[in-house]
Amino acid sequence: MILTSLAGCIESSDESSDDTTDGSDQGTEYYGTIMTSTYHVEQLVSAIVGDTANVEMMSTSNMPVHDYRPSTQDLERLRSSEVFFYHGLDLEPWVQSAITSDGAPPSYMTHTMPSGEVTLDYQTMLLNDLCEQLAEGDKVSNTLLSYEDQADQLEIHPEKGVQTLTFPEADTSHEGHDHDDHDGH
């Protein structure tokens, strides 16, 4: 085991012994070119691989990821890379055709849905949570006061539960004041 860990430290007699510090041979294996689909994925991969690989983005322009379509040269760069990392979740509509084409490198999605789902069903999630709260949550009813000087008396607690807020009915009948629709009003 000790010999295998030292194997990377032994310099071959065929290699030059000059003291250049270009980082090309520091006893670390070099993995080639890794292609990424977006800036964020490129930053993630670069942070992981460090100097052991050349990490490049598919798009060399500052184009929104949803609008980007790879050029012939971009697809050629992809084919010549060792591996491809992409965001996933249909952020890049062009990826599926690019990774299934001939000569495409192994590819890996960095963001995936739980349990193999394709899209988040927000409506179902919200309805399930709402139904759960209506069935099991605390039920609190508050009548909102219509006068500023009484607003501090209202207590609404933000804990999970069902809050019913109502306004009091307007009292339009005042003694000595007629609200009928008549001339001059």
Question: Can you walk through the features of this model?
Answer:
There is one protein chain. The chain has helices at 2-6, 39-49, 72-80, 95-99, 122-136, and strands spanning 33-36, 54-57, 83-86, 107-109, 139-143, 162-166. The chain folds into two domains: 28-116, Nitrogenase molybdenum iron protein domain (Rossmann fold, 3-Layer(aba) Sandwich), CATH 3.40.50.1980; 122-166, no CATH class. The model is unreliable at 1-23 (pLDDT under 50). Helix content is 24%, strand content 14%. The chain has a four-stranded parallel beta sheet, sandwiched between helices. A two-stranded parallel sheet has the order 5-6.
Based on CA atoms alone, the radius of gyration comes out at 33 Å
How many angstroms separate the termini? 100 Å
Per the CATH scheme, the topology name of the largest domain is Rossmann fold
Q: What's the CATH first level of the largest domain?
A: Alpha Beta
Helix content: 10-25%
Strand order of the largest sheet: 2-1-3-4
Low-confidence stretches: 1-23
The number of helical segments is 5
What is the percentage of strand-forming residues? Answer: 5-15%
Largest sheet: 4 strands, parallel
The name of the CATH superfamily of the largest domain reads Nitrogenase molybdenum iron protein domain
